[in-house]
Amino acid sequence: MASSDVDRLRAHAAEHGIDTDTLSLTVVDDRYRLVVDGTVYEDLTEGEVRDTLATHPAAVREWAFWHRRAPQADARWAFLRWIEDADAHSSPSDRRAALTEGEQQRWGQLLVRVRLNDAQRRAYELRHVDDADRSAEQLDAYDDPRTARALAKYDNDGRYRPLATAPTLQTGWVFAGLEADALVQAVDFFYPATIANWHRERTGTLDVTHWAETTERQTGIYAVTEELDGAAVDWVAEACCVDSQCLKRRQWDETADRTLDVARGDGTFPCREPCSLVIAAARKWALLEREDQQTYTVQLTPSEKEQLETMLDAVADGTTDEVREADVGNAANRYRARYLRAKRAGDELFESPEDDE
Ligand code: SF4
Positive or negative, the Cα torsion across 346, 351, 354, 356? Predict the structure, then answer.
């Protein structure tokens, strides 16, 4: 243990007093009262405090980390404690024993690990959950948290990711040996504001802005989104906000009084208002919903009808790439689609009402 930690702790106590869940140190008239690891020491001199603290290295190290090295902002501090389930350990010694083994948590598609390094300090590691079992040598190693912003931009196929919390984060990278502040910075670059909103929710201060309020304040080309209400808002959430599309847990509804009939999701961190991606998509849907309904006559065999439904599902679920070219048994197979298109070439697949006149 660094003797400077003992000196800093004692100096801090002399100026401000220390009263944490695991360690208390107060001074009156140059005499100290120390409570550490469940033992009370009264009427200590400065030298006796130093000597006594040296016999409780775990408590001193924990104090030094949580009250000197860890980011002191409430949300970040709480996040770091959550990662190692700090409050579940009854004493600093227990906590450090657990950290020697290592602790981990999942945050969206991120896997956050923490353990004590050779210097007995916390070292954090961040990687994709799908890379949990890969060795660090198999992954591209980074140490600058700002790199996370670049990694978050594209998926494994090099496609741009317009939604940071879509479950399409690329794999193959690792940030190892991070300090606590670098760890929370990297997480913020991958998933902006998620730590802050998670903490607001835990402390009962998450300010939710519902659909109606969000669309009412849209201006210009997005003002049209206000036209979507009722079932259409459910369809928007079903299209964009379920777990298969976004890792946030939707907390907004149409209004505070009209709950959407769509699963909120199981995400660890909440979504407090419709995001810009959803608003941009809603603008298009609002314009399309202005069209009048028509009745069409469709000439299809039963299998072709089923094929159209299967193709719609495959596109909506983003699984068309998974259909093998040779698998013509799959109704969403590309050759099946091309055959149907060729068969219908020259015919109108859908007869509009005017065609009957
Ligand atoms: S509005 Fe929907 S898609 Fe956008 S961040 Fe929130 S939950 Fe995700």
Answer: positive
Question: How many C-alpha atoms does 12 have within 13 Å on its Cβ side?
Answer: 17
Ligand 1 centre to CA of 279 (Å) is 10
- Tens digit of pLDDT for each residue in 152-178? 999 999 999 999 999 999 999 999 999
Domain holding 102, by residue range, is 71-201
How far apart CA 83 and CA 255 sit, in angstroms, is: 34
| Mutational test site, ligand 1, from 198, 250, 253, max ligand atoms within 8 Å of CB | 250
Integer CA distances (angstroms), 213 to 74, 238, 262, 263, in order: 29, 19, 19, 21
Predicted TM-score of the model (pTM): 0.90
Block residue for tokens 């069409």: 296
Ligand 1 atom closest to Cα of 240? 3
Residue 293 DSSP symbol: P
**Separation of 245 CA from ligand 1 center, angstroms?**
8
Final residue of a structural domain among 243, 258, 288: 288
- Name the residue at shortest CA distance from atom 7 of ligand 1: 241
What is the 165 CA–ligand 1 centroid distance (Å)? 8
Structure tokens of 104?
């981990």
> What's the number of domains the chain is made of?
4
Distance 72 CA to ligand 1 centre (A): 29
Residue type, 44: L
pLDDT tens by residue, 276-288: 999 999 999 999 9
Atom of ligand 1 nearest to the CA of 241: 2
Q: Are residues 253 and 223 in the same domain?
A: yes
Residues 6+ apart with CB under 8 A from 272: 197, 200, 206, 207, 208, 209, 251, 252
Pocket of ligand 1 (CB under 6 A): 163, 165, 240-241, 246, 248, 250, 271, 274-275, 277-278
